[in-house]
Amino acid sequence: MASASSHAAIPAVFQELPVIRDTLITETTELQTETVSKCLIFLAGSHSSQKGPLNRHGVPALMRDEHIGYLYDSLEDYPPGFVAMDASRPWMIYWALAALSLLGEDLSRHRDRAISTIIPMQNPTGGFGGGHGQISHCASSYAAVLSLAMVGGEEALNLIDRQAMWKWLGTLKQPDGGITVFEGGEEDVRGAYCAMVIISLLNLPLTLPPEAKAREYGLETFTDGLLEYLSRCQTFEGGISGSPGSEAHGAYAFCALACLCILGEPEVTIPKCMDVQLLLSWLSARQYAPEGGFAGRTNKLVDGCYSHWVGSCWPLIQSALDGTQDAASPQSAVRNLYSREGLTRYILGCCQSKNGGLRDKPGKHPDSYHTCYTLTGLSSVQHYHYHTNSSAVLDGQFSSAFSWKYRPARDSDDKISDINVFDEKDRLKAFHPLYVIPHEAAESMRIWCAQKPLGNARE
Ligand SMILES: [Zn+2]
């Protein structure tokens, strides 16, 4: 049983070992038991590295200043051992800026540096590589475009060669409807999600460029066959895999669901492509007790980054079940699809590193990737998101992707089974549930691009 001392306000489910445990002892079950034992001490707030008093719910405070300091450091020099990160330069910018933004920092001071760092990574043939001289990749292009959207301003938005981006993305479209992550690279739901994020934010034409190879197979637009491709990625478990026939995974689930919500209204596209009941069953099984956090796959350990990858699936599913809301008076019929309390306890109790930065789980080092995605998950817990009949984009494609609104999650949502266990001072900024940047950053980029149509894009 738990050896940690208990706080009166912490429910037993977050203090005790699970009632039902696997009787077959394997390396997997041993690792799981070990992880639970470590987490229980942090969930009780009684580990020696945890500072400060617990709040009235028995939850540690958000170490806002320490995390901000950690993120500023993450944008400075790295020792030689980190050379492999040279292929992730746009990601390092995105993770740090996104997390700083969630924490309430003004990003305008980073604008010039972000622009000068990102400029050399754009290839004349379109898209952004992970570092200087590297070929363009969907993931690094996604991170670069989102970083530029976050810092904003004419210079940042203007530096993207949208015409070349459109042509490059055209080379990635495949005959079966899916999209590869780079030319000749693997085809998976990351490619689909990143490409649709870029196309919808930059207001690129949906038609494939004339030279796109997929045209030879009868495809004419980026979305041809895409819903069907995503549908084939749902597995027998109900989760979503990276590509048809592989294992269901939390990060791919988010990519696929967010892509479906860009392609149309969630209540239309999600049930059209997915068995929603089976998907709910799989997603629900990703949250563990007593830890409270999410694991990414069946029989895996809880990990802070899935606070976003799995956690951010919930508002999308909820929106699919609730349908389009009136922007002024949303009426959610569906509540508590997951334990917001449990996720809050895991993030604030188990993921905060004593010197700043957030981590996968106790015993791991923090990094900017986990800092970004645990905080994104915390923000998702703290805000109720819904899509509406009122879009920031009045005409053109994907208007429903820009119709998402939010309000702070309040105790009154459901006082009995899922209360806010964080203090008001620990509430983060809300992020757009599809673009994972501030709402206003996504809307500004799209509106700016819509005012500057590509000259000869359709020729
Ligand atoms: Zn992780």
Automatic annotation (TrEMBL):
Transmembrane segments: none annotated. Residues 62-436 form the Prenyltransferase alpha-alpha toroid domain. One of its GO terms (cellular component) is protein farnesyltransferase complex. The keyword Metal-binding applies. Keywords: Metal-binding, Prenyltransferase, Repeat, Transferase, Zinc. Its cofactor is Zn(2+). GO terms for molecular function: protein farnesyltransferase activity; zinc ion binding. Binds 1 zinc ion per subunit. One of its GO terms (biological process) is prenylation. Its EC number is 2.5.1.58. It holds the Pfam family Prenyltrans. It comes from the Eukaryota. It catalyses: L-cysteinyl-[protein] + (2E,6E)-farnesyl diphosphate = S-(2E,6E)-farnesyl-L-cysteinyl-[protein] + diphosphate. Heterodimer of an alpha and a beta subunit. Catalyzes the transfer of a farnesyl moiety from farnesyl diphosphate to a cysteine at the fourth position from the C-terminus of several proteins. The beta subunit is responsible for peptide-binding. PANTHER family: GERANYLGERANYL TRANSFERASE TYPE BETA SUBUNIT, PROTEIN FARNESYLTRANSFERASE SUBUNIT BETA. Belongs to the protein prenyltransferase subunit beta family. This is Protein farnesyltransferase subunit beta. The lineage of its organism: Eukaryota, Fungi, Dikarya, Ascomycota, Pezizomycotina.
